[in-house]
Amino acid sequence: MCQIEIDEHCDVWSEAIVLARKPHRCSCCFSMIQSGQNYLRHFSALDGDVSPGTLCMDCKTDRDLFAEKHDGILAHPSGLLGMVEECVYEGDDGDEDSWRPMLSRIKIRRVRATKKEASNECHPKV
């Protein structure tokens, strides 16, 4: 199993599942979270630096699975992809097979979100 090392712990770490009142973007896969959808709202602070974030429910599910296998360590929403990549590319033998499907899921969602955004830029609403 790959080892995740945390140098410092946040002074503040707050998360809640909330219903979106306006569109948001997932900090991990960049998918749009539409009004009326549930998402994870994150806020943390370390040494006075604040760091908000959001996770779509698909990325939240992946992060929960990842944390379950890594002693409960929760990745910041914007750091989940990097942590999974680290396990795939730098983990012990066999880790890449465990985490490669999750890495693929996140990257596929990211590509879809990017393509969708590019399509919307090419075809603006009138």
Short synopsis of the structure:
This protein has helices at residues 57-68, 80-90, 95-122, and strands at 12-19, 24-25, 32-33, 38-46, 49-55.
Describe the structure.
The chain is of the alpha+beta class and 126 residues long. The chain has one domain: first zn-finger domain of poly(adp-ribose) polymerase-1. The protein is 40% helix and 22% strand. It contains 3 helices and 5 strands. Strands 1-4-5 form a 3-stranded antiparallel sheet. The protein has a two-stranded antiparallel ribbon with strand order 2-3. A hairpin with a 6-residue loop joins strand 2 and strand 3. Helix 2 packs across helix 3. The longest helix has 28 residues. The radius of gyration is 16 Å and the shape is globular. The termini are far apart.
Task: Furnish the topology, listing elements before pairings.
Layout: E1 12-19, E2 24-25, E3 32-33, E4 38-46, E5 49-55, H1 57-68, H2 80-90, H3 95-122
Antiparallel strand pairs: 1-4, 2-3, 4-5
Helix pairs in contact: 2-3
What's the shape? globular
Order of helices and strands: EEEEEHHH
Instruction: Please work out how many helical segments DSSP would assign.
Output: 3
The CATH architecture is 2-Layer Sandwich
- Overall radius of gyration: 16 Å
CATH class: Alpha Beta
Query: Largest beta sheet: what is the strand line-up?
Result: 1-4-5
Features:
single chain, 126 residues, alpha+beta, first zn-finger domain of poly(adp-ribose) polymerase-1, three-stranded antiparallel β-sheet, two-stranded antiparallel sheet, 22% strand
